[in-house]
Amino acid sequence: MSERKAIFITGGGSGIGRAIALHFGAKGWFVGLGDIDEAGMAETARLLDNGFNYSHRLDVRDRQAWDTALGAFALAAGGKIHVLANNAGIPVGGQLADNSVDEIERCLDINLKGVLFGAQAVYPYLKETAPDSCLLNTASAAGIYGTAGASIYCATKFGVRGITESLDAEWAEDRIKVADLMPSFIETPLLDKNPNAKTNENVRQRVLDAGLEITPVEDVAQAAWNAVHGDDLHVVVGKTARRVRFAARWVPARMRKMARGSLRPLGQ
Fold this sequence. Notes:
Number of helices: 9
Mean pLDDT: 89
Shape: globular
Strand content: 5-15%
Strand order of the largest sheet: 3-2-1-4-5-6-7
Largest sheet: 7 strands, parallel
Order of helices and strands: EHEHEHEHEHEHHEHH
Low-confidence stretches: 263-268
CATH architecture: 3-Layer(aba) Sandwich
Number of strands: 7
Number of domains: 1
CATH class: Alpha Beta
Helix content: 40-55%
CATH superfamily: NAD(P)-binding Rossmann-like Domain
CATH topology: Rossmann fold
Distance between the termini: 39 Å
């Protein structure tokens, strides 16, 4: 029997993280879940229902907690980690002038520092399992072109994109694959959250008002599988993300005009 591969997924208690967990679990992988949402992880584990999963409460902002979580998961999975899905993230939107210091710092800490800490902590595990290993970061269409009403979120996702490109080069000699996902608006609970504390309008309503499509979360899970097993550095998911990538590359003046004419974020 071939070795059962192991993937650890942050933000595994819901949304994209849960979808990735279910997809890889159905393929026979040992799945590790990291999240601060213990009830959500318990539900994901119940849905996996294959006996090959492990959950660990993890705040991705805590560097030491990363070492503890990955060490425990590696032990449960037979000593090896093949993939880290650096997926945990939160949305923050609205005018920069309206965002509080707490909102700014929390988004930066989770979306950006959490990705760096995860990459740093998982590196020795991925080096050991290379060339069958992969660091998979969740970026966003908001990391393709910045949009009004999402400056903080865009900053973090451009940062994730930069981390991906940097580590792709840095870890090349170790034969560790590095990639990121760039989804547009995905059908997850994040759509039902308010973009900041000063508004009662949730993200979903803004997306619908702007006439943009909402992509099934299963599409992101399939894209994650393709990214781990393919050669693409940036994996774009959803019609909106593909349109933004095309416009930013081929008609940048039009993209700039579109961005100036809308306060709707174009991110995950």
